[in-house]
């Protein structure tokens, strides 16, 4: 029902069905439906009444306010709640919203995927989330924090938290944030931790990310940490050359010298 002007009044009507014990709905998408904290409160109340069916809730583009975030956090900590995926991207969240969600991450919940992209969390908010991530009760597998105004300080906090509790997260999206050189180094060191289970790490655009992974695979080092890159002896082809060109244009790339043999 995304992209409809349901408002809080419409959500409250839906909640009469959600709280009915005959309801077995597993996925509910209500992105951009003009829902405010009043609607969040109604949803949380309905799902506490009948918590065992819903596994995915998308509230992208709706502003919960502080009380709405607290309502969701309390719901997620209900031992009967089965929510595995929660999307709160572009919801007007700030660093203050992260305290309650950090409590959720540090609890024994069913939550596996949390999307908080396109919110002004900043480094201070990320540091709060890290208190939950480093808790051994945290079993979150996917965390999306693209375009959240995170700098190298936030990257350092994330890397530290994931070194403390490295075995749960398999995907981390930091696209659109600026790690600086020290942030890139923190992520690189984290990936070399033998206990780190990250399979997908995004902080570059798609083409630059593909080029970075390709170069890392053939030279054994992250090109973002190098000043000189020698690709002699590797047949790149036009496609790879174009990808590497995109990588060289990325603000995170500090290469001064590139050596390769044109095909």
From the 3D coordinates, which CATH architecture of the largest domain would you assign?
Answer: Alpha-Beta Horseshoe
Distance between the termini: 52 Å
CATH homologous superfamily descriptor of the largest domain: Ribonuclease Inhibitor
Which ranges are low-confidence, i.e. pLDDT below 50, for 5 or more consecutive residues?
none
Number of domains: 2
Mean pLDDT: 91
Helix and strand content put the structural class at: alpha/beta
- Outline type: elongated
* Number of strand elements: 9
Order of helices and strands: HEHEHEHEHEHEHEHEHE
- Specify the CATH class of the largest domain: Alpha Beta
- Helix content range: 40-55%
Radius of gyration: 21 Å
Tell me the CATH topology of the largest domain.
Leucine-rich repeat, LRR (right-handed beta-alpha superhelix)
Major sheet description = 7 strands, parallel
Count of DSSP-assigned helices: 9
* Biggest β-sheet: strands ordered side by side in the sheet: 1-2-3-4-5-6-7
- Approximate strand percentage: 5-15%
Task: Provide tags for this entry.
10% strand, 2 domains, alpha/beta, single chain, 9 strands, 7-stranded parallel sheet, Leucine-rich repeat, LRR (right-handed beta-alpha superhelix), 263 residues, two-stranded parallel sheet
């Amino acid at each position: 029902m995304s992209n409809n002007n349901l408002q809080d009044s419409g959500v409250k009507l839906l909640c009469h069905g959600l709280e009915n014990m005959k309801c077995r709905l597993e996925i509910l998408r209500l992105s951009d439906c003009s829902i405010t904290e009043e609607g969040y409160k109604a949803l949380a109340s309905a799902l506490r009444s009948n918590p065992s069916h819903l596994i995915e809730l998308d509230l992208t583009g709706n502003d919960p306010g502080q009380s709405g975030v607290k309502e969701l956090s309390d719901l997620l900590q209900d031992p009967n709640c089965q929510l595995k995926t929660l999307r709160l991207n572009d919801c007007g969240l700030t660093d203050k919203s992260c305290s309650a969600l950090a409590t959720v991450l540090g609890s024994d919940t069913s939550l596996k995927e949390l999307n908080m992209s396109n919110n002004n969390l900043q480094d201070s908010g990320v540091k709060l989330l890290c208190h939950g991530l480093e808790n051994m009760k945290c079993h979150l597998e996917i965390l999306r924090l693209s375009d959240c105004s995170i700098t190298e300080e936030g990257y350092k906090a994330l890397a530290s938290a994931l070194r403390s509790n490295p075995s749960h997260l398999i995907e981390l999206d930091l696209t659109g944030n600026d790690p600086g050189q020290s942030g890139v180094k923190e992520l690189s060191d984290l990936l070399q931790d033998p206990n780190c289970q990250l399979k997908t790490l995004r902080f570059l655009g798609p083409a630059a990310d593909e080029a970075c992974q390709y170069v890392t695979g053939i030279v054994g080092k992250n090109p973002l940490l190098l000043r000189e890159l020698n690709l002699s002896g590797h047949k790149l082809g036009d496609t790879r050359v174009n990808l590497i060109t995109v990588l060289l244009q990325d603000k995170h790339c500090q290469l001064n010298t590139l050596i390769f043999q044109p095909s």
